[in-house]
Design goal:
single chain; mainly beta; Beta-galactosidase, Chain A, domain 5; eight-stranded antiparallel β-sheet; 2% helix; binds 6-O-phosphono-beta-D-glucopyranose; glucose-6-phosphate 1-epimerase activity; isomerase; Aldose_1/G6P_1-epimerase
Length: 289
């Protein structure tokens, strides 16, 4: 399979990334960014004047059969182990499949890359996906999944955001939302009161369609997630024990990250009929505090 079928503007370069995997780098006056074709995985986005917005683990694997830890894993066609808890690999096969670059354009320093996933080539006939990522002052993500057969679709932009100190972080915008608490001992029926704060392992699927923002006083900035075609927002930090248990996550890295994810999962999975299509959109933007 030819992995790159698009002509590239001068701001986009093909490189050999870590583990010998093919990566694309973007370098414009507006931002620097990086995407691996493995999983269509965005591993960097750094708008001009900002420190990196996406967090990457120094312990991440870079191998064709393993997910990358950090950046933006594209999770689908199921989330975690799926609605019934019986699916593997975790978070679906999109993030461990090879994607093709089918389009690339630079409009005044905002670069849009189009990536295509051919399910048949990845061993999963009947499902295809197109993913348009816009790198500029903002980061825009648009994933369209098409299915030839009936499909209960779960999906996530499992975005890892870099923060200065998780214990000072708050997440705004989820007040009053019901959520499933997936942390050990958590219950499926909770309601958020006020902003989200972090004092231990946090793994929550909120029923939420609006926008939310991570307020990061240690870095003097906030990162806003706005989304469409998404009925859930996930907030995740593994804290100490879970970080220590994950081989591809450094034991001491958890204070520097939080996941704020645009999701469709669990009761909010998207039910598609044969021939159906669904688009999930998210925009991440940074503002000073
Ligand atoms: O280790 P993975 O498969 O990338 O998943 C990371 C985490 O992702 C979260 O979204 C899940 O709710 C957690 O249960 C999981 O631990």
């Amino acid at each position: 399979m030819d992995q790159i079928t698009a002509a590239l503007p001068s701001s986009v370069t093909v490189t050999e990334g870590r583990g010998g995997l093919t990566a694309l780098t973007v370098d414009t006056a507006r931002c620097r960014a990086e995407v691996y074709l493995h999983g269509a995985h965005v591993t960097a986005w750094q708008p001009a004047g900002q420190s990196p917005v996406l967090w990457m683990s120094e312990a991440s694997a870079f191998a064709a059969d393993q997910p990358i830890r950090g950046g933006i894993p594209v999770c689908a066609p199921w989330f975690g182990t799926g609605r019934d808890g019986d699916k593997a690999p975790a978070h679906g096969w999109f993030r461990v499949s090879p994607w093709q670059l089918t389009g690339a354009e630079d409009n005044d320093g905002t670069v849009r890359l189009t990536l295509h996933l051919d399910g048949a080539a990845a061993g999963h006939p009947g499902i295809e996906a197109d993913y348009v990522v816009g790198f500029g002052d903002e980061l825009t993500l648009e994933l369209t999944v098409t299915t030839a057969e009936d499909l209960v679709l779960e999906e996530a932009f499992h975005t890892y955001l870099a923060v200065g100190d998780i214990e000072q972080v708050t997440v705004e915008g989820l007040d009053g939302c019901s959520y499933v608490d997936k942390a050990p001992g958590g219950s499926p029926d909770n309601t958020q009161s006020g902003d989200v704060t972090f004092t231990g392992e946090t793994d929550r699927v909120y029923a939420h369609t609006g926008s939310a923002r991570v307020v990061d006083p240690a870095n003097g900035r906030a990162i806003t997630l706005a989304k469409a075609g998404s009925g859930a927002t996930v907030v995740w930090n593994p804290w100490t024990a879970k970080a220590a248990a994950m081989p591809d996550f450094g034991d001491d890295e958890w204070p520097g990250m939080v996941c704020l994810e645009a999701v469709n999962a669990l009761a909010g999975a998207v039910e598609l009929a044969a021939g159906g299509q669904h688009t999930l959109q998210a925009t991440y933007s940074v503002t000073a505090l």
